[in-house]
């Protein structure tokens, strides 16, 4: 077991967003958080990250790139903590061959190899999002958290990104707006509605229509 929450109220700035959350996350879980905008997906992800910070790579909703630095350097930041300051500064000025060799295949897998030494601020929104994913892949670990990690890419690229995340990490927890993709990639669906967990069950056997209630303006809740 990686994490257990029992009857927790979650939120920010002294504002409760999710009430009475009870949740267990185990190693190997492939979880999709679904629900309409404002349902609390980001809040739940933030709570999980706060408790598993040392174990988790993160793909935030906003990539948080340094626009003046290259794609390479933005991805390299995923492993800053593994190197001494002098080495990081050296690599900033003169990228080491071994670091380039480690990062280049990640960019190639997500269609960014030709952008490796372009400034991140000059990329499109979708390309920047993929750089953020590459940074998480480079950081590595057993767990990745993603807040709408494919929201800025087309359906073809979305599948490439999701394939990469599920290939590189044993445990995957993603907030997703595309319910069809969530059902295809996740083994467990957690649905949020009106400030509570309204559904938590395996994706096997679920259809898109089974999740429609999460997006309807009604008080229909299922546990």
Question: In a few lines, what is going on in this structure?
Answer:
The protein has 223 residues and is α/β, with parallel strands linked by helices. The chain has helices spanning 41-51, 71-76, 85-93, 97-109, 125-139, 155-168, 179-185, and strands at residues 3-12, 15-25, 30-34, 56-59, 143-147, 171-175, 188-193, 196-202.
Characterise the protein shown here.
- The chain has 223 residues and is an alpha/beta fold.
- 34% of the residues lie in helices and 24% in strands.
- α6 (155-168) links the parallel β5 and β6 (171-175).
- The longest helix has 15 residues, at 125-139.
- The chain is globular.
- The mean pLDDT is 91.
Question: Helical segment tally?
Answer: 7
The total count of strands amounts to 8
Sketch the topology as an H/E string, one letter per element: EEEHEHHHHEHEHEE
Helical proportion, percent range: 25-40%
Multimer state: single chain
End-to-end separation in angstroms reads 21 Å
- Main sheet: strands, sense, barrel: 6 strands, mixed
Order of strands side by side in the largest beta sheet? 4-5-6-3-7-8
What number is the mean pLDDT? 91
Instruction: Tell me the strand percentage band.
Output: 15-25%
- Write down the Rg: 18 Å
The SS-based structural class is: alpha/beta
The unreliable regions are none
> Shape from CA axes?
globular
